[in-house]
Amino acid sequence: MFHWIDWTVSESGQGYFAATMRLAVPLLLAALGGVYCERAGVVNVGLEGMMLSGALSASLVASGTGSAVAGLFAGVATGILVAALLAVFTVVLPCDPVVSGISLNLLAVGGTTFAFRAVVGTGGTSHPSPTIGATPVPGLRDIPVLGPLLFDQTYLVYVALAAVVVTRVVLRRTGWGLLIRACGEHPAAADSVGLDVNRTRFVCLLVSGGLAGLGGVFVSLVSSSQFVENMTAGRGYIALAILILGRRSAFGVLAASLLFGLGDAFQLRAQLSHSGIPFEFLLMIPYVLTMLMPAVFGRRLYTPAALGVPFRRGQR
User: Fold this and answer.
1) Domains in the chain, CATH or no CATH each
2) What angle (nearest 5°) sits at the alpha carbon of residue 298, between those of residues 296 and 301?
């Protein structure tokens, strides 16, 4: 027990928890985006494509302009545009949301690879771009455990944590949040009092795309300084599992993201410690968690009543 406490406050332990937070944030941002659209009744399997597209545009714009902030806005805007494309197919037409989302992800993999090679060639990585570095809080960064975890991080970590609180307040304390939940639980009732269900779902998908795009920005401008083909490596799918495991709630998603970040940090640490375990098995840890956790807690999970059900005005 005392050995564990000593390790927790040691430099090694604090670095481990700080890495957990950094690895959890892109998952958290994408999963928070999923909270909005799925609480409105729209299944969003396209989080991976939104993250990957945002990561590419952020890296290219930041490299081309020399400004990480410009790259950040480009990544968010790209995520919104990709989400708008998905919204056209799943809300306006509407097509099957799962098929549309998977198709979007495949399109993003091929499209980003093509665009990347067209711009920078076939070398496999882009030129180094400006990164978003840490923004330590003086005086608070030296607090054991909590200092490195919360107060010696990039400002995008603070944005992600603020987004958790904002999402909770919006969904539980505002009229728009009530409308979102009504569209996910009983869209016909919402329509009967004059509310525009499909417009709400469309907007929620755009919000989802912006947050997922911001998660992609984190991957390409914080976790790395270069874009690599398919660099999100399935994080969008992990975010979807986090969304389900977190019961589609803001704080539930935060807890699940930290759990997955902890597992990811563990596999990285195990690789560096030369544990003797083949690194291929260590790389599997986040994806094994993705399969196991929803299966273990599946009976306790929450699903909106009208999730994945298309809506037509006047429908009862």
Assistant:
1) 15-133+149-297 (1.10.3470)
2) 130
